[in-house]
Amino acid sequence: MVFKINISHKGKSFKIETESENLIGKRIGEKIDGKEISNELKGYELEITGTSDVAGIPGIKGLEGSIYYRKLLKYGKGMRDRRKGIRLRKTLRGEEISSKTVQINLKVIKEGEKKFEEFLKKEEKLENIAS
What is the extent of the structural domain holding 25? Predict the structure, then answer.
């Protein structure tokens, strides 16, 4: 299983794909060491801010486990409809990362040895080569 990991810092982000199973069982809001994801992120401290599964269903903080929930939502996480007074029943997933999770969103809390901009430059070079 491959995790698509989006790491953001000060309005910029880059993507890493990893097969590391160290993240299974972690929850949204937990802080993790960057070395758990990749050796390049040594010294980084990251926080899990969100997840989504194979079908694109978001994981929401506050829902236990990694199972599906059907919740009645108003505007906010998991729902975008802004019409006044509207509430919709949506399918959501719990806050725990499982083998069904595909995408994990992280934010940088503390930078490590390498500066964040170096990762962005590497990603730009790879995109230029692929084009």
Answer: 3-64+95-130
